[in-house]
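Final report, closing paragraph on structural work. Over the funding period we assembled a curated collection of sequence-structure pairs, and we close with a single example.
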Amino acid sequence: MIKFSVARLDKEPIELAGSEPAEFLGLASGDVYSAASSVDYDLLVSRVSGGALVSGSCRVTIAGECGRCLAPVEREIAAENIELFIALPQTAEEIDISEDIRSEVLLELPMILLCKEDCRGLCPRCGADLNRCKCGCSGTPGGALAWGELDKLNL
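Its predicted structure, as stored:
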């Protein structure tokens, strides 16, 4: 849990640095990708009018399959330039910002995890990995055959 003391914050800014276990992100084993490392954070909490300003960054390595060629992939994801305003309740002694930080990291997760930006994927006909070899299919992969049945519709 990532917490800070309100009493200490009244005296000075608070530096929060450390790591949380991979389970911190709450990614289930059946998800598209999982956390392959702990979530490392480096944050500064400063007192501002009416609350606290949390700024800093977080990093985590995620693992999964490439969305195009299905190769195993590990990528470091960074939530840089985190800037959060936290309202401070009158009676709180400690504030837990774990969920706010978790949300910032989850927003950085890619829609599709790729092994490389120019991944060519798999041939839609024979399934060959187009990054490693040229497809052995005759004709154009997919092409007219894939959409040919739609041409027969009378709309």
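The CA atoms of residues 76 and 101 lie 16 Å apart. Residues 122-155 form one domain. We thank the funder for supporting this effort.
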